[in-house]
Write a structure and sequence with these properties.
The chain is α+β, with helices and mostly antiparallel strands and 495 residues long. The protein contains 14 helices and 18 strands. This is argininosuccinate synthase.
């Protein structure tokens, strides 16, 4: 933070909130100044300067208090912003030294690079995470980034970490959002944001930035991870600050700043792809009454065009986590990649749903999760052998909350971490294998086995046995039905 300086004149403003350390230190310092400014932007105040938690309100008449040192420091920093210049001589919102930008190489993030330099006077380090989106999306990124004005591009292969530390815990927990969504994008954002925090430390950056819009869930997922892992980092979210409103504005800005506009054909859909899934939004999907076009799908074939013969697969599981496919032990990412191929060939894992976004609106999305759908079916089925009734019921109830936390970007929340410890403990005996039949879009369980199975054929059999005396059921039924019998007697007596 800047050094303290005397305050001569300023707006009649009450700074209510300023993010500090892991919590949010609240400032209730009021002060009176003769001149009143009409908007918080005249002070250079933006949400991202204060880690997304700044609130500015106009007031009327206040006096300085003896605790005003915090306000003086904030205003001194703002005063610096109004006297510093960016690369083109423009007035800066705030002076930053180096920003790590989540970079894809598309139009939006290509434009963000010069915008950051122009408005924050900083160096820009572009960061790209390989979470299984495909090699075609990683080609030529360094040239694009540097042509846009970045000083460096950092690419990290996060596929194994993504599957091992994020996907598999959700799989073990049985986390499904609103009955259908297997949380593909929700799980990817925290692993990317975590890597960005690491890169920021490596390159000495004092800020991070992303290209998420102000309407979506991803902005929350990125920023909550930043707050949890390094609350000292400033966060810049251009879509909540700039005047660019669409693709044409972005192209015009890119042309003005000599940024090469990506020449790839613009998809009519908004897509997000990683090793777990591929999501589709936008265009005709914005009307929930419209059926998706078949040519939209990229990971799976139309079930009617899938092979006419079913395929059987066997998934090996140890303590609630998949470890093998058809007897072959594989790393988490390799296992998922192979199942994506097999599942996609049979049209497995297509989901069409209307979901509730975290920010309050409903949205319609179509998801392809072939390998994930197979794995969820296998793990869930094995639990039917290894977990008792009460444990399954508690686990299923917690899985709903677990999914909500992940969807809302609260991966590093102590509650999710505590719930994950519970899930890990109760699935210690969920080991064994499950055989599944894949056929024209469906996944059917055909067999399951476990050394920890609670299933006893000698008890369950309809044949007579020494362990279970069927005559004992009469007494059980009388005791189990006692409340019902008592209620009926009261009703008959008119009580």
């Amino acid at each position: 933070m800047a050094q303290l300086h005397p305050i001569s004149s300023c707006s009649s403003t009450n700074l209510l909130s300023y993010a500090s350390n892991i919590g949010y230190a609240r400032i209730h310092q009021n002060f009176h100044c003769p001149q009143k400014l009409t908007s918080p932007h005249e002070l250079g105040v933006t949400a991202s300067e204060f880690h997304g938690r700044a609130i500015v309100q106009n007031t009327t008449n206040f006096g300085l208090t003896r605790q005003n040192h915090a306000v003086r420091a904030v205003l001194a920093s703002l005063n610096e912003a109004t006297t510093s210049s960016g690369v083109d001589g423009n007035v800066l919102r705030k002076k930053l030294n180096k920003v790590v930008l989540a970079y894809s190489g598309g139009l939006d993030t290509s434009v963000i690079v010069p915008w950051l330099r122009e408005n924050y006077g900083c160096e820009v380090v572009c960061f790209t995470a390989d979470v299984g989106q495909g090699l075609q999306e990683l080609e030529g990124l360094e040239q694009k980034a540097k042509a846009s004005g970045a000083c460096q591009l950092v690419v990290k292969d996060l596929k194994e970490e993504f599957v091992r530390d994020f996907i598999f815990p959700c799989l073990r927990a049985g986390a499904i959002y609103e009955r259908k969504y297997l949380l593909g994008t929700s799980m990817a954002r925290p692993v990317i944001a975590k890597a960005m925090v690491d890169v920021a430390k490596e390159v000495g950056a004092d800020a991070v930035s992303h290209g998420c819009t102000g309407k979506g869930n991803d902005q929350v997922r990125f920023e909550l991870t930043f707050f949890a892992l390094n609350p000292e980092l400033s966060v810049v979210a251009p879509w909540r600050e700039w005047e660019i409103t669409g693709r044409e504005d972005a192209i015009e800005y890119a042309t003005k700043h000599n940024v090469p506009v990506p020449v790839t054909k613009k998809s009519i859909y908004s897509r997000d792809r990683n090793l777990w899934h591929l999501s589709h939004e936008g265009d005709i999907l914005e009307d929930p009454a419209n059926e998706p076009n078949e040519d939209m799908y990229m990971m799976s074939v139309d079930p009617k065009d899938a092979p006419d013969q079913p395929e059987y697969v066997k998934i090996g599981i140890v303590e609630g986590l998949p470890v093998s496919f058809n007897g072959k032990e594989l790393s988490p990412a390799s296992l998922l990649a192979e199942l994506n191929e097999v599942g996609g060939k049979h049209g497995i894992g297509r989901i069409d749903m209307v979901e509730n976004r975290l920010v309050g609106m409903k949205s319609r999305g179509v998801y392809e999760t072939p390998g994930g759908t197979i794995l969820f079916s296998a793990v869930r089925e094995l639990e039917s052998l290894t977990l008792d009734r009460e444990t399954i019921q508690v686990k299923d109830s917690l899985a709903l909350k677990y999914a909500e936390l992940v969807y809302a970007g609260r991966w590093f929340d102590p509650l999710r971490e505590s719930m994950d410890a519970f899930m890990k403990e109760i699935t210690k005996t969920t080991s064994g294998s499950v055989t599944l039949k894949l056929y024209k879009g469906s996944v059917s369980v055909t067999g399951r086995e476990s050394p920890y199975s609670l299933y006893r054929q000698d008890i369950s059999s309809f044949e007579s046995g020494d362990i279970y005396n069927q005559a004992d059921a009469a007494g059980f039924i009388r005791l189990y039905g006692l409340p019902m019998r008592g209620s009926c007697l009261c009703l008959r007596k008119g009580l």
